[in-house]
Specification:
The chain is α+β, with helices and mostly antiparallel strands. The chain contains two helices and three strands, in the order βαββα. The protein has a three-stranded mixed β-sheet. The longest helix has 23 residues. The chain is rod-shaped and about 85 Å long.
């Protein structure tokens, strides 16, 4: 039986929770606030969040890389 229980904080970001789970070699993390257990998250939950975050980042980078530059204003001919 485990003597040191690994827990997460409700304000903790998902990357640090994933890192904590990886270091402890666990698949589920209790989320506690003080003496109260709020929830339990799994590595699968965090991977889904990570995939969504990476998808948004890729979409943003594609828009940035492949954006069509605006054409500079052409001087008008004066008569």
């Amino acid at each position: 039986m485990t003597s040191q229980i690994v827990v997460g904080d409700p304000d903790e970001d998902y990357q640090s929770a994933m890192r904590k789970m990886d270091q402890a070699n666990i698949r589920h993390l209790l989320v506690v606030k003080g003496p109260e257990m709020l929830s339990m998250i799994s590595i699968r939950d965090l991977i889904r969040v990570d995939m969504q975050d990476k998808g948004e980042e890729i979409r943003y980078l594609r828009e940035y890389l492949y954006q069509v530059p605006t054409e500079p204003a052409r001087p008008t001919a004066r008569a």
